[in-house]
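Fold this: ABC transporter substrate-binding protein
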Amino acid sequence: MSRWTRRGFAKAAVLASLALSSAAMTPTGVLAADKVTVGALRFTSHAASFVAFERGYFTEEGLEVEFKFFQAAQPMAVAIASGDVDFGVTAISGGLINLAEKGAIKVVGGALQEEPGVDGQMILVSKGAYDAGVTTPAALKGHSFGITQAGSSFHYMAHKIADKEGFDRAEITLRPLQKVGAVIGALKTGQIDAWAIVPHIAKGLAKAPEVEVIGKIADYIPGYQVTTVFTSTRNASERPELVKRFLAAFSRGADDFNAALVDKTLSAEEQEAMVRLIHKYVYADRPFEKAEGSIRNGAMRINKGARLNLASVQDQLDWFKSEKLVPASVSMETLVDTSFVETD
């Protein structure tokens, strides 16, 4: 091989290497997109993740996202611990806390939060219960309340109502039904007397003759940090940059969502575009015209910058301990990694 040929060959090899390297680069400068699976429920309250995905915010952070959908919070926590899911956005559950105690999970941010002036979770009763006199939350004493599982957010809300109204927690009968859909069916048919749920579901149910609204959860749990962002302890400790990039994209999605449907500072056209985006994931089995109102009704505040209300998380942890659903030894440091977002 001649000197010129060897030189040309070496140059071509370098150029090829650079081309391959460039092809592997993402807009963020990392070699390749990190593939992550995000756990979610098909609720309007999970829209920050959907917006971040649809508008390319995850991609801009070098993340290739796939969603995995769940029917309740606790199975999502198990999926995080097992590695089947990388990030979850849902309510704190007993299962999540127990997995945190075992060193498997960390809460790294906040999502949905009750806020004065913004419609939040509503307390519902069946028409039969309402006609029998259950017209205020104080009247829930001696009646049944639907939950997905023991240790779920529904369980927590039922007991917080009992505490404020001054009757024993045992005087509200809990009915574990595993899935949100099953609870809805039981309420509409009068198999349970009461439930509490986010507004996009609550308002839709209240339009039907089988269900009545009797109160708001915000009156019983002010500032309630309804949902949180969580990941595996391994991600939090060994891949903090991955967590930061996820939260950055998630927060941009939350900003867009809040501007369109909570603060309503965007134009009518931009608001409708947001609803249509969410409709791909929420009430997707309904025509847009029938889904639009329910999606708009579910627009609760998603915390800016994934800010976390630690006082609310502490209250939830204290309740879990009081019910002996989690070990008394679990601390906030065990459950929460506060290094990623601002906290209250």
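The chain has two domains: 34-113+225-335, 122-219. The radius of gyration is 23 Å.
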